């Protein structure tokens, strides 16, 4: 067996919190006069909170309108709204076939890691009642560079005590797929071929994940 570990992104792969990030950024955008549409939102996926804010300010030519403290306040206010949206998360919000895939990986003795840019990841995994499946959850504040840099995937493989060639990475974001590719793992993109054609394999939804993983690890 070649693959010994699967490293998951969280938002947009395990649950559909990617849409809550969008709602919360859009709301902040309205307050500061910057329009955020779905196409622009794709470029925010996988990117840390503060880096996302920087991109939004640049889009509105307002990057020099706020000092660092004010930027932290804006990011905090977006996060408060986002966290209030997370209140409604339950185990029913786990995306299709994710639990089956995690069970299959456990039964097959494949290690499971989480490489999410989100500081809210442990809270979300607890709400979804999935936290016990994960052998390793990388704290994004412990890696120097965010996605699209490969750091978080490399750190996760290291913590799982695996070589990158033994790992499969799963991502829904353009930046995340770049990060997996740069780490030299096999990349599976979940979403549309038009955004994710740089992934080694693209699946239109998590529904197809279990069969793909079975084929890869058997
Ligand atoms: C990533 C999301 O998983 O986490 C991004 O794709 C988000 O949209 C980033 O900005 C940081 O998340 P959080 O929860 O720490 O603000
Ligand atoms: Mg994601």
Which short descriptors sum up this protein?
218 residues, alpha/beta, Rossmann fold, DNA polymerase, domain 1, 2 domains, binds 6-O-phosphono-beta-D-glucopyranose, binds magnesium ion
Summarize the helices and strands and which ones pair or pack:
Blueprint: E1 5-8, H1 18-32, H2 38-42, H3 49-59, H4 68-86, H5 98-107, E2 111-114, H6 121-127, E3 136-137, H7 151-159, E4 167-171, H8 174-183, E5 186-190, H9 193-196, E6 201-203, H10 209-217
Parallel strand pairs: 1-2, 1-4, 2-3, 4-5, 5-6
Bound molecules: 6-O-phosphono-beta-D-glucopyranose (BG6) and magnesium ion.
Descriptive notes:
By secondary structure, the protein is α/β, with parallel strands linked by helices. It has two domains: 5-16 and 90-217, HAD superfamily/HAD-like (Rossmann fold), CATH 3.40.50.1000; 18-88, DNA polymerase, domain 1 (Orthogonal Bundle). Helices cover 45% and strands 11% of the residues. It has a six-stranded parallel beta sheet, with helices on both faces. Helix 1 (18-32) packs across helix 4. The longest helix has 19 residues, at 68-86. The structure holds 6-O-phosphono-beta-D-glucopyranose and magnesium ion. Magnesium ion (MG) binds at residues 9, 11-13, 18, 45-46, 172-173, 176. Residues 9, 11-13, 18, 45-46, 172-173, 176 line the site of magnesium ion.
């Amino acid at each position: 067996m070649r693959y010994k570990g699967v490293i998951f992104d969280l938002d947009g792969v395990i649950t559909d919190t990617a849409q809550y990030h969008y709602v919360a950024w859009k709301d902040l955008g309205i307050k500061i006069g910057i329009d955020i549409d779905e196409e622009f939102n794709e470029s925010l996926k996988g990117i840390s909170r503060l880096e996302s804010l920087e991109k939004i300010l640049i889009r509105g030519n307002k990057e020099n309108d706020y000092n660092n403290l004010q930027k932290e306040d804006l990011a905090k206010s977006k996060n408060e709204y986002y966290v209030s949206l997370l209140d409604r998360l339950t185990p029913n919000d786990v995306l299709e076939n994710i639990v089956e895939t995690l069970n299959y990986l456990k039964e097959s003795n494949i290690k499971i890691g989480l490489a999410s840019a989100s500081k809210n990841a442990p809270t979300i995994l607890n709400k979804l009642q999935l936290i016990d499946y994960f052998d390793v959850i990388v704290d994004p504040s412990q890696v120097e560079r965010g996605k699209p840099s490969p750091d978080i995937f490399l750190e996760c493989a290291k913590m799982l005590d695996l070589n990158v060639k033994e790992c499969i990475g799963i991502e829904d974001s353009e930046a995340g797929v770049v990060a997996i590719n740069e780490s030299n793992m096999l990349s599976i993109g979940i979403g549309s071929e038009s955004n994710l054609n740089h992934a080694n394999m693209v699946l239109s939804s998590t529904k197809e994940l279990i069969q793909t993983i079975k084929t890869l690890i058997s």
